[in-house]
Amino acid sequence: MSGAASAVLSTTVAGAVVALLESLGVRRAYGLTGGPIAPFCDALGRSTRIRTLHCRHESGAAFAALEDSLASGELCAVFVTTGPGITNALTGICAARSDGGRVLLISASTSARETGRGAFQETSPVTLPVEGIFRAGPIFHSAFRLDEPAQLPAIAAEIALGLARPQGWVGHLTIPIGAQTELCAPAFARVVSCRHDCDPALIDASVARLDRREFAIWAGFGARGASAELAELAARTGAAVMCSPRAKGVFPEDHPQYLGVTGFGGHERVKEYLFEARPERILVLGSRLGEFTSFWDLDFVPSGGFVHVDLDPCAAGAAYPEAETLSVSAEIGSFLRALLGRLSPRVGSPAWTRHADAHPLELRARGPVRPAALMAAVQRAIVDASDAIVLCEAGNAFAWGTHALSFRTAGRYRTSTLWGAMGHASCGVIGATLARGTPGVALVGDGAMLMQTEISTAVQYGIPAVWIVLNDGLYGMIEQGMRAQGLRPLETKLPATDFAAHARALGAQGVRVEHEPELDAALAGIAAPARTRPIVVDVRIDPAEPAPFLRRVQSLVRQTSHADPSHSHMEVEA
Predict the structure, then answer these.
(1) What's the pLDDT band for 158 if we cut at 50, 70, 90?
(2) Disulfide-capable partner of 176 in 56, 92, 111, 574 (CB 3.0 to 4.6 Å)?
(3) How many C-beta neighbours within 10 Å does residue 385 have?
């Protein structure tokens, strides 16, 4: 081999993949190493541009990468070994796909010559489904197996093309251990953003449906980058604004035209507005209107139907296929900018203005903490006193956080309404904290904390994440939900657990709260940027307080009983 050729092949496949990640802007990689992925991990550890975090579970690594990618807008990598390394990661990877993250899973696999011969933790089409793991499909937008160094340039180009999708991209690159050490020329890629301008004819059609008419705005997570345009649209038209649970803060929640959250943990005043004002149309911005956003409730269908704007052309009509819908495939900000110049200013007062809020909750001196009192303290100490991001775990924590917390800006509230995995927030908070550079706060139930956290990882790497545990000794949402359906709860009670002591045993700070007057002192300063140590605040929650999610129960009953969906009626949250 000539000297020039030797220089070109001066790295290995593992090193070339790491160089590709660097060229794609990856700054953090989360995962767990193992024998078959060791050559890649060795190359990753030598990178001066990518920080490697060795987590405690593969799904925790995937959740952390997902939340990092959403907070930073960057591609994050997850690295795992063969067999259970991949399958353990899939829960977090499915969450990344459903929530619009930018995550590349890099795994090891069994080489072709050992396939079917009983290799330890064999990872091949013999042991795992091709469609779910090795081929693009419902889990991965793209999936690659790198057997030969010559394949890498084409793979790099396809990854860069996928990352140009503004909706997010989730990929899988699996590399047999033998291929990881082969000599390889470096491959680089650069992501080129795509324009998603709106068809002028669709702008015309939208103006015809909205101008000088009474309409409401239903904002979703896809509108999080268009808060300024949304505020200008509301001011110009006087339209009332409601949002999906994931869109909290996209429109200021203290604004007089803000209705509230729809769906799980939502606000009854939304339905009150729909019955009283009866808007002719609803402008949907960046939401599929899935079950946890709409409960597929026909009361949300206005007489004139929807103007539904989303980057995904399949979003419109997914929740309400029978409703009249103008489908607009466009980026929300560009659509709103085009629309604003065409709509007439509203004459007179807005169609709806916010009612006076309820009086502050008075603290009770004794007994366990009411969830509403905890949320009020979180509002004071964290939401109002810092710019910390708040992540709510699946379960009652999600219901209470969505219902009770109020944000004025986008990007400070995160929850999952599609995949909804327990462990998402309790692990994802470390990724969100690293991406933002300030403490992130996870509101989680005791069931989730017993299932999975990355507290030990936070201790190891000095990540000042915060866990606030709603500790009621129950799988609370299951307990309350089964009782609401007239069923007897099955094994929903949990042994008493001292999460503060557990945190201290892992090397984190641990604080226990028994009564409501202790809340402010326990939460004071925990989201301060100067704090460098992870902390767990274990709050003894009153299990008798019903969470605001009972319309989810009614949705389940409607599905299991095959009730006629045309019999829609107004239902009030607990």
Answers:
(1) very high
(2) 111
(3) 15
How many CB atoms are located within 10 Å of the residue 187 CB?
Answer: 20
Residue whose C-alpha is closest to residue 309's, from 337, 334, 283? 283
Rama region for 296: left / alpha / beta (φ>0; ψ in -120 to 50; rest): left
The string of pLDDT tens digits covering residues 100-133 is 999 999 999 877 777 666 666 677 676 777 877 8
- Provide the pairing of β-strand 258-261 with 306-310: unpaired
Q: Is 522 in a helix, a strand, or coil?
A: helix
- Of 457, 491, 483, give the one whose Cα is nearest residue 553: 483
Residues 6+ apart with CB under 8 A from 26: 50, 74, 75, 76, 77, 104
| Phi, psi (rounded to 5 degrees) for 329 | -90, 105
Q: What is the rounded CA–CA span in Å between residue 478 and residue 415?
A: 18
H helix or E strand, kind and range, residue 470: strand 466-471
Beta strands in 340-394 (DSSP E): 390-392
Cα–Cα distance, 257 to 263 (Å, whole number) = 19
The whole-number average pLDDT for the span 94-99 is: 94
Of 451, 461, 469, 425, give the one whose Cα is nearest residue 534: 461
- What does the pLDDT read at residue 570? 31
CA nearest 170: which of 103, 111, 107, 106? 103
Pair of tokens at residue 528: 């301060």
CA angle 529, 532, 536 (to 5 degrees): 100
With 0-12 / 13-18 / 19 or more C-beta atoms within 10 angstroms meaning exposed / middle / buried, residue 42 is: middle
Does 157 score more than 60 pLDDT?
A: yes
Please check whether residue 432 is in contact with residue 414, taking contact to mean a CB–CB distance below 8 angstroms.
yes
Largest CA distance in the chain: 81
510: which strand partners?
536
- Structure-token match 């299932």, residue found: 451
- Taking Cα atoms as reference points, which of 91, 173, 86, 146 lies closest to residue 121? 86
Name the average pLDDT for the chain.
87
Adjacency order of strands within the sheet including 413-414: 413-414, 390-392, 441-445, 466-471, 535-540, 509-513
pLDDT digits (tens, 9 = 90+) for 470-488: 998 776 666 767 677 777 7
Please provide the size of the chain in residues. Answer: 574
Provide the token pair at 501: 């002591």
> In terms of DSSP bridges, do strands 28-31 and 11-12 run parallel, antiparallel, or are they unpaired?
unpaired
**R_g over Cα of the chain:** 25
Q: What are phi and psi of 20, to 5 degrees?
A: -65, -45
**167-140-125 Cα angle (round to 5):** 175
Tokens found for residue 385: 């006193």
> What is the per-residue DSSP string for 215-266?
EEEEE-GGGTT-HHHHHHHHHHH---EEE-GGGTTSS-TTSTTEEEE-STT-
DSSP annotation of 360: P
CB atoms within 10 A of CB 404: 18
DSSP 8-class letter at 203: H
**59 phi, psi to nearest 5 deg:** -70, -35
DSSP-assigned letters across all residues of 24-54: TT--EEEE---GGGHHHHHHHHT-SS-EEEE
d(CA 328, CA 336) in angstroms, rounded, equals 11
